[in-house]
Write a structure and sequence with these properties.
Blueprint: H1 3-26, H2 31-34, E1 38-41, E2 47-50, H3 56-67, E3 74-77, E4 85-88
Length: 94
């Protein structure tokens, strides 16, 4: 495996790991539960997030959150020449 492939895969896995940890933290899950979540890259360069064992109540909360429909996202045109748009959270006025 090329080093650049490994680095890219590692970055992707670490970003996803942090996102999941942040979401669990925001949901009030104690750090002792989610701190063992880690990023993994296989010898073939495939990125994964290893969540390991979770307490049943955390797994149930995670499953319930995944069943919820995503909030509608509105986009605000920044007016830049590059066409950059930013998401507007639900309930917020641009």
């Amino acid at each position: 495996m090329e080093m650049q492939l490994w680095r890219d895969s590692r970055d992707r896995a670490e970003t996803a790991t942090r996102a999941l940890q942040d979401a669990l933290d925001a949901a009030g899950v104690p750090e002792r539960v989610w701190r063992s979540i880690r990023s993994v890259v296989t010898r073939h360069g495939r990125p994964f997030v290893d969540i390991g064992p979770l307490p049943p109540e955390v797994a149930e909360r995670l499953a319930e959150a995944l069943r919820q429909p995503p909030p509608e996202t509105r986009w605000l045109d920044t007016g830049s020449s590059s066409g950059v748009m930013i998401p507007v959270p639900p309930g917020r006025r641009p």
